[in-house]
Amino acid sequence: VEKTVISVRMSRVKKLLDIDLTADAAGKLIAPLGFATEGKSDSLDHQGSQLSVKVPSFRSQDVTREIDVIEEIARIY
After folding, report:
1. Which of 19, 29, 41 has the alpha carbon at shortest distance from 69?
2. d(CA 50, CA 32)
3. pTM
């Protein structure tokens, strides 16, 4: 089964959660939940910074959009 890949804009994370996270830090937060991440950036300059998240197969039904991944980041944060 091919994993779903969702792009998460770090500017959107900042806007919705009002927390400053780098893409790398956000990836580390959700990694224990089984999410694999790519395209990390260590800069807090959120313009254009994105995180590619591979959703584990057991979460493919409930994590389908960017906002779902942001919710997981918020939950763990």
Report:
1. 29
2. 20
3. 0.87
49 burial (CB, 10 Å; 0-12 / 13-18 / 19+) is buried
Helix H segments across the chain? 10-17, 23-30, 66-76
Provide, for the chain, the percentages of residues in helix, strand and coil under a 3-state DSSP scheme, each rounded to the nearest 5.
Answer: 45, 20, 40
Distance, in Å, from the CA atom of 39 to the CA atom of 49, rounded to the nearest integer, reads 8
Q: What does the alpha-carbon distance between residue 41 and residue 5 come to, in Å, rounded to a whole number?
A: 17
C-alpha span between 1 and 60 (Å, rounded) = 10
Q: pLDDT tens across 25-60, in order?
A: 999 999 999 999 986 565 566 566 889 999 999 999
